[in-house]
Amino acid sequence: MSVGKRILVTGANGQLGRELREIASAEWLFTDIEELDICSKVAVRDYLLANGVGTIVNCAAYTNVDRAEEEPEVAKRVNSDAVAMLAEVARECGVKLVHISTDYLFGGEVFNSPIGEDVEPKPLGVYGQTKLMGERAVIESGCRYVILRTAWLYSTYGANFVKTIMRLSVEREELRVVNDQIGTPTYARDLALVIRDICECSVEVEGIYNYTNEGAISWYDFASAIVEIAGHNCRVVPCTTAEYGAKAARPTYSVLDKQKIRGVIRRDIPHWRASLEECIKRMAQL
Ligand SMILES: NC(=O)c1ccc[n+]([C@@H]2O[C@H](COP(=O)([O-])OP(=O)(O)OC[C@H]3O[C@@H](n4cnc5c(N)ncnc54)[C@H](OP(=O)(O)O)[C@@H]3O)[C@@H](O)[C@H]2O)c1
After folding, report:
1. Does the beta carbon of 33 lie inside 6 Å of ligand 1?
2. Does residue 125 sit in helix, strand or coil?
3. Is residue 96 part of a domain?
4. Rg (CA), the chain
5. Is a pLDDT exceeding 90 seen at residue 1?
6. Ligand 1: does its nearest atom lie under 6 Å from the Cβ of 43?
7. Are the C-beta atoms of 225 and 164 separated by less than 8 Å?
8. Most buried among 71, 90, 177, 275, using CB within 10 Å?
9. pLDDT at residue 202, as a whole number
10. In this structure, is residue 78 part of a structural domain?
11. Residues of the chain by 3-state class (helix, strand, coil), percent to 5
12. Hey, which of 32, 135, 189, 213 would you mutate to test ligand 1's pocket, going by the most ligand atoms within 8 Å of its Cβ?
């Protein structure tokens, strides 16, 4: 019914959205909640039709994993109800939906090797549960979609683990960081490049895909590398998840298998350490 050629990014003031802004051509449109609240069906439909949108990249989400435990209704409204509505409007307007999802879909079942796209998710907390509901709504809507599952996102923008460790390792002499959760950090710039490839690809890409950087480490390993690369003089001490005591439960192992996406992207997947060095270099230039 629509269908234009333009690519709309929602939630574009977040860390992934900001990275997309930096690499996108003038054809792309960027909105966050002030310009376009993804919870408003009328606003979304009007925007798609008025602007000739052919693809939505949904970066809007409720991403505070611990706070989601205290306000599950708010998390559900953005991560599930709004996504269901976006998918419905996308189908009605003939628009493709590229939706970003998470490794926190897992954790309820313990794995020790990379998790493929066809493994049944079992989330541990409200954030993962609401993201899973969002995914299911996209799949059931009948719209053309790509679900991109990623993990441990960081960037020069927004609030994230790298920026927190960079700050705390200057303020403190010692940091305690969890050493029994294994995953893969992902530089949002690398993910943004893959999203651009998928949106601008002449071959139609559809379905669920995992994308993270390469490698598998703990948060402790990650923090140690950040401090080392930044050249900060701070001791990083490993602790257990139980000792740390966060509000939300998190997966002990959530490394995602990237075999499937290797078949559709034409670029190498950078190792987490190389991308971290790149990001810290960019931070120093800002
Ligand atoms: N961060 C991670 O470690 C991580 C890991 C795996 C997957 N992901 C997924 O990757 C995607 C991007 O994450 P991110 O880290 O870039 O998130 P982010 O920095 O939290 O950005 C999300 C953006 O969406 C906006 N937003 C919230 N509700 C909205 C609404 N109703 N309408 C329009 N915009 C709204 C937020 O605004 P406010 O800030 O004002 O709320 C924010 O600007 C999300 O789907 C997330 O679930 C993230």
Report:
1. yes
2. coil
3. yes
4. 19
5. no
6. no
7. no
8. 90
9. 83
10. yes
11. 45, 20, 40
12. 32
CA 233 to ligand 1 center in whole angstroms:
32
Indicate whether 285 belongs to any domain. Answer: no
270-281 pLDDT, tens digit each: 999 999 999 999
Q: Is 38 in the pocket of ligand 1 (CB under 6 A)?
A: yes
Q: What is the CATH number of the domain that holds 121?
A: 3.40.50.720
Kindly provide the b/e burial profile for residues 56-72, where b requires at least 16 CB atoms within 10 angstroms of the residue's own CB. bbbbbbbbebebbbeeb
pLDDT confidence tier of residue 2, bands split at 50, 70 and 90 = low
Assess whether pLDDT exceeds 80 at residue 193: yes
> Residue 218 and residue 202: Cα distance in Å, rounded?
38
pLDDT at 4: 83
Rounded distance from Cα 98 to ligand 1 centre (Å) = 14
Q: What is the DSSP letter of 32?
A: -
Using a 6 Å cutoff on CB, does residue 14 contact ligand 1?
A: yes
Q: Give kind and range of the element (H or E) at residue 175.
A: strand 174-178
**Whether residue 9 has its Cβ less than 6 Å from ligand 1:** no
Q: Got the DSSP string for 263-277?
A: TT--SPPPBHHHHHH
234 CA distance to ligand 1 middle (Å)? 30
Rounded Cα distance, 25 and 206, in Å: 22
What is the domain range of residue 133? 6-151+187-213+255-270
Examine the residue annotation and report whether 157 is marked as an active-site residue of this protein. no
Structure-token pair, residue 15: 């860390």
